[in-house]
Write a structure and sequence with these properties.
Elements (H helix, E strand, L loop, with lengths): L1 H6 L2 H16 L7 E3 L4 E3 L3 E3 L4 E5 L7 H13 L10 E4 L3 H11 L3 E5 L7 E2 L12 E6 L9 H11 E8 L9
Parallel strand pairs: 5-6, 5-8, 6-7, 8-9
Antiparallel strand pairs: 1-2, 3-4
Bound molecules: zinc ion (ZN).
């Protein structure tokens, strides 16, 4: 199978991935649930979690409850999408947000991760390579609990945040997946 996959062109692989994604959504066809992250509907969300939560994950973009809540915060309670230019740093970016944030913020959106090669830049949040007051918005979820010196990481994030900027720094809580 691996040999067969290596023979396929990138566009064929993309078409196959899209077809597989579409097939997985067929049992969920309907209008009972709406995901604000991807603006698509389904009959219900699919189960998710080590301790399974029914009706949890968007079948289209993979957004969980916490992602949909964060999107609603961004949309209704923050200035992130007010149309004014804002530089956003997204550490350890959640896949369900990436294309939407790239569309809305364009070149002002930067993803960073220490280990994930798909992030735009490699970054150690205890030694950030950007000057002070570089970003209007920082999002860094489920990262600080893995950093040995989380106080240093938070000082670094504060250092690169602009004076009137804001950050979402969520750590994994009980029941989070
Ligand atoms: Zn979605």
């Amino acid at each position: 199978m691996r040999v067969l996959k290596s023979c396929l062109s990138k566009s064929v692989k993309t078409h196959l991935q899209n077809a597989r994604r579409f097939i997985r959504t067929v049992p969920y066809y309907g209008k009972g649930r709406y995901c604000p992250v991807c603006s698509k509907s389904s009959s219900r969300f699919r189960p998710s979690g080590a301790i399974t939560r029914e009706d949890a994950q968007c079948v289209h973009c993979g957004a969980l409850e916490r992602h949909r809540l964060l999107y609603l915060f961004w949309h209704k309670k923050s200035d992130l999408f007010d149309g004014k230019p804002k530089k956003m740093l997204h550490v350890a970016p959640e896949q369900c947000f990436e294309s939407m944030l790239k569309d809305k913020l364009a070149s002002d959106y930067l993803t960073a991760d220490l280990l994930n090669p798909h992030a735009m830049v490699k970054m150690d949040i205890c030694d950030i390579q950007y000057p002070e007051k570089s970003f209007d918005v920082i999002c860094c979820n489920h990262v600080l609990e893995h950093v040995p010196d989380d106080m240093l990481a938070m000082r670094e994030l504060f250092r690169i945040l602009k004076k009137n900027g804001w950050a979402i720094l969520k750590i994994k809580g009980v029941g989070d997946t």
